[in-house]
Amino acid sequence: MINLCRLIRPKQWIKNTVVLLPIFFGGALLRVEALYAGFITALSFSFISSSIYCLNDIIDLKDDRRHPVKCQRPLASGAISVVQGFIIMASMVILAMITLFLLPDNQMKTAGVIFFYWVLNIAYCLFLKQHAIIDVCVIAFGFVLRIISGGLATGIGLSKWIVLMTFLLMLFLSFAKRRDDVLRMNETGHAPRKNTSRYNLTFINQAITITASVTLVCYIMYTMSPEVIANFHTSNLYLTSVFVLLGLLRYIQISVVDKKSGDPTKVILNDRFIQLIVLGFGLTFLIIIYFL
Questions:
Q1: Membrane-spanning residues where (predicted)?
Q2: pLDDT tens digits, residue range 21-50?
Q3: pTM, two decimal places
Q4: Range of the structural domain that residue 53 is part of
Q5: Exposure pattern of 144-162 as b/e (b: 16+ CB <10 Å)?
Q6: Are residues 121 and 241 in the same domain?
Q7: How far is C-alpha 285 from the chain's CA centre?
């Protein structure tokens, strides 16, 4: 059971809460049916993501066995065989599709987006991840597909702002993660990924700075856009920009100073400062749209 959990990575399921963003930014947190549909979709995405983790570990088996940390993964260590890995992968896909039958509306459209995500990530595991820049763009686009599926499942229309902000933020986090790979390559002389040699610290640092800056500007424009002000009946959302700035700065600090940006999920789960920033952002946003 322990090896199964390590293979399907349930801790990584926190990423799929992105599916709930349309509910949050759509002001639908008090709609029980929207929360239910969002939860079901996030669960389906969690299962489909786990199937991709299985495939990724199967494909990277030889490289993982040479890696100082990844050699402990269930497949690389031999705790789970390749055949068992494929069976678990198929089981996760079946669970993902079965879960979608619990959706009250737009089952087929939501399933179509999730299936496209699955195919895209298979392509990523097989060859797209070998190409620098393309690899991080595919990862970021995967999160865009998550919010699209959340919007379809809940019946909440997506604004161009939420799509753009999601892509930019995830691009920022992906570059920060690649920075960890570059540091390891510089220390050991061995590239953790085939495309790591196409990155260096100068490029990564500039990419992180650019994506963080554009993300912040995009969020400020979102809070001050006429459509958002009209939708929430308030012009005070710009105040939450402070939390976005603090969050970006803190993550840059973790990446550049602490050199611990290799696993964004672990950072979010363990860093109290970022957790307080997220909590402060969420509470402030909700107070402004529901009580002011």
A1: 12-30, 36-55, 75-102, 108-127, 132-152, 158-176, 203-222, 228-252, 273-291
A2: 999 888 888 889 999 999 999 999 999 999
A3: 0.91
A4: 1-158
A5: bbbbbbbbbbbbbebbebb
A6: no
A7: 21
